Amino acid sequence: MSRLKGWRKFAALVLLALPFLWGARQWHIRALERPRVVCLSSPETANDFTPTWSPKGDPIVFCRFMKLYRISPDGKNCQPLLLLEHTQGTPAFSPDGRKLAFSSSHGGSIDLWVMDLETRRLTRLTHDEERDVWPAWSPDGKRILFTKRISSTRTTLFLLDLERGEEREFCPELSWGRCGSWSPDGKQVVFVSSGHEGESRGLWIAEADGTHPRELYQSPSRDDEPCWSPDGRFIAFSSDQGGVMNIWLLEVETKRAFPLTFFTEGWASSPCFSPDGEWIVFARKVGSNSVLSKVKVPRHRISVVRREP
C-alpha cells in the first residue's frame, strides 16, 4: 500500500510539472539545434559595423573604424574600399551590385553618397545639415529609402527618387521611423517605429509609397534593424529579448519570431542576408571591439519553431 501511495504521489508531481518540463524541452531542443556561427574578423584587429552583402555573392562591405572595407564571405581578402579623411558608414549595394550607397561626412555634414564600384566615382545624393544614414535601394534601383534626422528630437524615413532627385517623407503621419528594408518584390517596406505618439516601439510595415503603415511585430524588448530575406518569407532583426541583443528571425506570414544567435554578453546587430538566403552576416561585440560574423539560416527547422509566450 505504501508503494502504491508513493507511485500516486510521483504521478501527481509529474502531472504538475509537465507544463514546465514541456516549456523547458522546447528551449532545450532549440539549444541543441542552434545554427552555426562563423567569425569573419578578429577582435584584436577589428572594430566592424553595419555589413551589407553584395547581390553578386562577393564581397561583403562593412564599416571598420568608420571607413569602408570589403571582405570575402569566407573571411579572406579583407581590404580597404574607400579611405577618405572623413567618416563613412551604413553601406548598401544597388540591386545590380555595381554601386554602393553609404553615409559620409565628406561634404561637411553626414549625407548620402553613391560610389560606382568600377570607376570609384563618388556622387553626392543629399545636402542636409542634419544626418542622413541607413540607405536602402528599392529592388528596381530607382529609389533609396533612408533615415533622416530632421530635428534634435525627431528621426524619420525619407524616400529619394534617383531619377528626379526629389525626396519626401515616407510616412509623415507616424511619430518617427528608421532602418527601412524593402520586400524583394518592391511592394512593401519594413522599418522600426513606435507608430503614433505614445505607442510602443516595434517592427512596422507599409506599402512602397508609404501608405497604410501598420504594426507587424512587437515584443516587450527592443527590436531593431530589420532586413527582408531574398524569398520574402522572413525578416531578420536584432532584439534584446532575453536581456542581450541577438539576431532573430520573424516569419512574415505567421508573425512567429525566434532567435538565431544565443550570445549571453555583448551584442549582435545589423543582420543582412546573403543573396541565396542561406547565411546572415552581422556585427557582434566581442570584448571592447566588434567583429563580423555570419550565421547559417536553418531553413529545414524554421517551420516547426513556434514563438514562445
Structural class: mainly beta
Strand order of the largest sheet: 1-24-23-22
CATH superfamily of the largest domain: TolB, C-terminal domain
What is the arithmetic mean of pLDDT? 86
- Under CATH, the topology of the largest domain can be stated as Neuraminidase
What CATH first level of the largest domain would be assigned?
Mainly Beta
Largest sheet: 4 strands, antiparallel
How helical, in percent, are the residues? 10-25%
Output the keywords.
single chain, Neuraminidase, four-stranded antiparallel sheet, globular
Would you kindly provide a brief summary of this structure?
The chain is mostly beta strands and 309 residues long. It has helices spanning 2-32, 299-302, and strands spanning 37-39, 48-53, 60-64, 67-71, 79-82, 88-93, 99-104, 111-116, 122-124, 132-137, 143-151, 154-161, 166-169, 178-182, 188-193, 202-207, 214-217, 223-228, 234-239, 246-251, 256-259, 268-273, 279-286, 289-296.
